[in-house]
Write a structure and sequence with these properties.
The chain folds into 4 domains: 77 residues, no CATH class; 252 residues, Rossmann fold, CATH 3.40.50; 78 residues, no CATH class; 163 residues, Chitobiase, domain 2. By secondary structure, it is of the alpha/beta class.
């Protein structure tokens, strides 16, 4: 530990000199990520799983020192090889995150190149140091490697496992892609997502929630959640499971996304992912044809493969078929379709090419969009279910919309917004509905706030009830520690007295304490749907003693309704959820919790979901 601290400190000293010398911020990230790797190992040494991991850490820190010296000399050499470790600084929490880049043998930096994005499988102890060490020293793979077809490959770190590539793990994929695009000439229409095992789970999640982001997706294995079958879950908890844990029910989104699902036929636990997705697509009206180990969906670009006599892996034959699939769709590239079929359960995941679902009749229930444009994009035929607000783009030639049995004559415009009223659909202002409404990235639950940049606000005043204040501080400390350990960064934190208007414009603010101890909470509490005095908490028509109860909730920030305010909660998932396959949101949009003396997490007393206008259910 002493040597680890000394090496880390030496890199940090060199980084300080580089900053003073105004070194390239991009290259400085590539150096400073090594200091971050050492600092995180010092903070969480329990992630050292073996002696080899300790040895690897010292090798990696030595490489970081060499990088710093090279940059000080003006001769960086790490960005000239075929395999490169680079880094970006995350918008979510400011933490440096590494990623790996592999260049093709015939790489031409002057020509746009296709990009394959790889999500690794479960690696619970793969710290930054282990990721860097193993990427630069690859072992012969157990499965046949993907063919070199002139693509750049991006290996995402995923913040270790990123709770199954969710929250910051999900954001890492898109932030790493953006970082690669800043350094290399990438063809935006030839980006393909790939993953296997837990990386397959992440690829199912990311591709089916973002069906227009990739030219294709190759997905191997991936666990299936059975949490909804467990006894004792509350109705609002079951509802929010439909965001992340029912991925097969999002399979209709394959209609606009070429997808190859596969696994070994003897891997019964994880082969189930592609079997379920294929079965759901068949229910949607797209039957499968072919042999058991090589099926295709009729009417949708789905391929379904099994590696015969194989467990958790990929046979050479299936790898060959997958390579052909990748080449076909990378060569074709992403093309904006004229016919969209899209399903969602939340406005967080709301976009498919030229259409966005901006409002729903009921969150966590299935919403469907079937939209087709004809006659040189002048005529649109649209069917909806559970959608109340719809944005349509690329409408420069539109003149007639036929939606749910109505006909609307419209004026051509780059974007047309439609709002459903009691009398039917009408063209609406793009600015959004009057008053509060659940819409994209402002729809909850509490855990939704941690997909975007957020700021923890620490109380500095005198609490109304010190037990409540101390419980809130323990909850905050736990969240900071768990986020650091499993998402590999620490949240932005400020004292309540130091929060600025610029902070309110940039961040979701996460307030801890009570209206006595937290001055920002005191400013807002009268404008939130909870009554909180020194003696009593009143929420959803029920009163609780304030000496040992307090609210945790998410709501559009009255000081900036484009961002959230959250009271007294980080992610509401349990400890296992941080490093497992899925993390279940436990507190909905709002909860009342009770102080649990000495514990980091209070006891849930009641919870629920706001309606579509952010009001309490009556």
């Amino acid at each position: 530990m002493a040597k680890l601290a000394a090496d880390t400190s030496e890199i940090e000293k060199l980084v300080a000199r580089l900053k003073a010398a105004q070194a390239s911020p991009v290259l400085l990230n590539d150096v400073e990520v090594y200091a971050k790797a050492g600092r995180m190992l010092l903070e969480y040494p329990e992630l050292f799983g073996t002696q080899a991991a300790i040895d690897h850490a010292f090798v990696v820190l030595g490489e970081g020192l060499e990088r710093a010296r090279q940059l000080l000399a003006g001769k960086p050499a790490w960005n000239t090889g075929q395999k490169r470790i680079e880094a970006y600084r995350s918008e979510i929490d400011g933490a440096l995150q590494p990623y790996g880049v592999s260049l093709p043998a015939n790489y031409d930096p002057t020509r746009p190149t296709k990009l394959y994005v790889w999500l690794h499988g479960r690696q619970n102890n793969t710290t930054e140091a282990e990721f860097i060490f193993n990427f630069l020293r690859p072992k012969p793979p157990g499965n046949a490697p993907v063919a070199d077809q002139g693509q750049i490959q991006l290996d995402c770190f995923g913040r270790v496992n990123g709770a199954g590539w969710h929250w910051a793990g999900e954001a890492d994929v898109f932030e790493a892609i953006a970082a690669v695009k800043k350094r290399y000439k990438i063809d935006d229409d030839r980006v393909i997502l790939r993953g296997f095992s837990q990386g397959g789970e992440g690829a199912w999640h990311i591709s089916l929630h973002h069906p227009d982001a990739f030219a294709a997706a190759e997905i191997g294995a991936g666990t299936v959640s059975r949490r909804a079958q467990q006894p004792g879950l509350l109705p609002f908890q079951l509802s929010t499971l439909r965001i992340w844990e029912n991925i097969s029910e999002w399979a209709l989104n394959i209609y606009n996304l070429p997808l190859a699902g596969h696994d070994g036929e003897e891997d019964t636990g994880q082969l189930e992912s592609s079997l379920r997705a294929r079965a759901q697509l068949e229910k949607e009206g797209f039957p499968s044809e072919g042999e058991k180990d090589y099926l295709h969906s009729v009417g949708a670009p789905g391929l379904w493969m099994q590696s015969l006599k194989t467990g958790h892996g990929t046979s050479p034959l299936v790898r060959q078929r997958l390579d052909a699939f990748l080449k076909e769709w990378a060569d074709k590239g992403r093309v904006t379709p004229d016919h969209l079929r899209f399903v969602t359960y939340t406005t967080r995941y709301n976009k498919d090419y030229w259409a966005s679902v901006e409002g729903m009749s009921q969150h966590y229930e299935r919403a469907d969009l079937d939209a087709e444009r004809r006659d040189s994009n002048s005529l649109y035929a649209i069917k909806t279910n559970n959608i109340t607000r719809l944005n349509l783009r690329e409408m420069d030639h539109a003149r007639e919309l036929r939606i749910d049995g109505q006909t609307l004559r419209v004026k051509a415009s780059p974007t047309i917004t439609l709002q459903k009223t009691v009398t039917g659909w009408k063209v609406a202002p793009r600015s959004g509905p009057a008053g509060l409404a659940k819409t994209h990235a402002l729809q909850g639950p509490i855990d939704d706030a941690f997909l975007d940049p957020f700021l923890l606000v620490r109380p500095t005043g005198t609490a109304w009830n010190e037990e409540v204040n101390q419980q809130a501080l323990r909850t905050m400390a736990r969240f900071d520690r768990m986020w650091g350990k499993f998402f590999r960064g620490h949240p932005f934190v400020k004292d309540d007295k130091d929060v600025t208007p610029a902070d309110l414009a940039r961040y979701h603010v996460i307030l801890f304490g009570d209206p006595g101890s937290n001055r920002l909470m005191a400013r807002l509490i009268g404008r939130l749907p909870v009554k909180w005095t020194k003696d009593q908490v009143s929420l959803a028509g029920v009163d609780y003693p304030a000496k040992d109860h307090f609210p945790a909730l998410i709501y559009p920030n009255p000081l900036n309704p484009a961002k959230y305010v959250v009271l007294n909660s980080g992610l509401t998932i349990d400890d296992r959820g941080y490093n497992g396959d899925y993390g279940m949101p436990q507190w909905g949009d709002y909860s009342v919790v009770k102080v649990k003396p000495g514990a980091e997490f209070p006891d849930l007393q009641a919870g629920g979901l706001f309606d579509e206008t952010w009001q309490l259910h009556k």
